[in-house]
Amino acid sequence: MRIAAFITCLALPVQAQSPEAAAGVAMERLAAAQTQLAGARTRSDRVQALTETVQSYEDGLAALRDGLRQVAARETALMAELTVNRAQLETTLGALQRIGRTPMPVVRDHPDGALSAARAGGIVADLTPALAAEVTDLRDQLEELARLRDLRADAVETLDEGLQGAQTARSTLGQAISNRTDLPQRFELDPLQVALLQASTETLDAFASGLAGTVPDVETELTASGDLALPVTGHVLPDDGQGRPGIRIVTAASALVTTPVAATLLYQGPLLDDGQVVVLEPAADVLFIIAGMEQTFGTAGQILPAGTPIGLMGGDPMENDGKVSQNNAFEGGRRQQSLYLEVREGQSPTNTDAWFALE
Fold first, then answer.
1. d(C-alpha 307, C-alpha 300), whole Å
2. Are 36 and 59 in contact (CB under 8 A)?
3. Cβ neighbours of residue 324 under 8 Å, at least 6 residues apart?
4. pLDDT at 7 (0 to 100)
5. Which of 281, 288, 233 is nearest to 255 (CA)?
6. For the packed helices 204-212 and 191-200, what is the interaxial angle rounded to 10 degrees?
């Protein structure tokens, strides 16, 4: 029964669960990622195994931050309820204490007569069970608040451990990619040719167009269907009005960037002011330009399977955001990272949403 309940919790969106359940499931996910990391070291397909491990850590950390936000929101709501309920209860108890200190002859001598005195006594008697119920509710709220605070402390500790585990997994993944020798090589790019092309271009678009002309097109055919997964977990920013044809995706620190589909790696490295850039060719006359990473993987000319890691975003992955925002999954004291994604068909940029599922 416990296993079935746990699987049911995993199937539910984090937002649909109670704060305790959301945080608990996220902590279980991180524990599973830690076990997955230990097993990935011995698997023959280490790059794929470690890629899945890093993504598991990222999912678990994101879920835990969501759970912490829900816990913080519930704590705030409980404190507000407690403040109101405590004030009302103190006022009622104060009135009853004053009545209790009143001499009985005075209590019985009601200005409107004996009948009114009896009615007043009945009202006071009726207050007793209602007050007992309020006291019980107040005690339950205090106990829930104590549980939430204990849970938050445990979740923040788990967050620290998860951040460390994710960093270990990323480092191990980088080493595994460096040692990889099983990818087919489609061509070798002339470093001098690339250097001349970099020196002669002033924009990312011009570089991508020039680069596409230096290597033969792939034979694969790929049709824009609008359902490709984004290369990184995050949320798409609205148009910033700068006129760039691509989109920007806000990510967590050190988020893993992967190939959306099988593609030839045309270029990886620094370019202009766009940070580390990767140019992929998934099909003839189609380019995916991905820019803004801090670290990139791979060698130009390699044919990468779908889901292959191509880089990591910047930022400090060990920065604990225990005081996490209740509004935004990527706030909480950490500098936002953003990835630029552009699609080109032929020599012209095209709408990114024609290829990728942006929502």
1. 17
2. no
3. 65, 68, 69, 72, 331, 332
4. 35
5. 233
6. 140
The token pair that represents 31 in the structure block: 């524990």
Question: Whole-model pTM?
Answer: 0.75
Cβ neighbours of residue 124 under 8 Å, at least 6 residues apart? 96, 99
Q: What backbone phi and psi angles, to 5 degrees, belong to 170?
A: -65, -45
> Can you count the helices (H) and strands (E) in the chain?
7, 11
Do residues 288 and 301 make contact, with C-beta atoms less than 8 angstroms apart? no
pLDDT digits (tens, 9 = 90+) for 114-154: 444 445 555 555 556 766 677 777 788 888 888 888 988 89
Phi, psi of 303 (to 5 degrees): -100, 115
Choose among 57, 14, 9: nearest CA to 32: 57
**d(Cα 40, Cα 46) in Å, to the nearest integer?**
6
For residue 140, give the H/E element and its range.
helix 114-178
CA 299 – CA 189 distance, rounded (Å): 9
Task: Find, among 307, 210, 229, the residue nearest to 267 by Cα.
Answer: 210
- Cβ-based burial of 294 (10 A; exposed 0-12, middle 13-18, buried ≥19): middle
Tokens matching residue 169:
């997994």
Per-residue tokens: 2: 């416990």
Name the average pLDDT for the chain.
Answer: 79
Give residue for tokens 């990222």: 58
Whether 166 and 99 have beta carbons less than 8 Å apart is answered as no
